[in-house]
Amino acid sequence: MSQNDKNKRSERSEFLAALSSLSQLGILIASCVIIGVMAGRFLDNLFGTSPWLLLLLSLLGMAAAFKSIFDFVNRK
């Protein structure tokens, strides 16, 4: 195997690792927000407090997403 082939494989693996990290981060952000919204809607329907718990848990979901981003960036 030539040095050129090794360089191409190395670049490809670096690209795939970066793509994997970005997709993981996107899923992490979306899941935090979606869980907050779904829990807020469920609790609002259960207690009849619409839209207050939805707003509160949506904001908490966004805060959890920012914390997850912060942890993810500091981990790498």
Polypeptide structure, described:
The protein is mostly helical. The chain has one domain. 91% of the residues lie in helices and 0% in strands. The chain has two helices and no strands. It has helices spanning 3-47, 52-75. Helix 1 (3-47) packs antiparallel against helix 2. The protein is rod-shaped. The two termini are 31 Å apart. 9% of the residues are buried. The mean pLDDT is 92.
The tally of domains stands at 1
Helix content: over 70%
Provide the residue-averaged pLDDT. 92
Count of helical stretches: 2
The main sheet comes to: none
Instruction: Give the termini distance in whole angstroms.
Output: 31 Å
Instruction: Tell me the radius of gyration.
Output: 20 Å
Low-confidence stretches: none
Coarse morphology: rod-shaped
N-to-C SSE series? HH
Provide a short characterization of the protein structure:
This protein has helices at residues 3-47, 52-75. It is mainly alpha-helical.
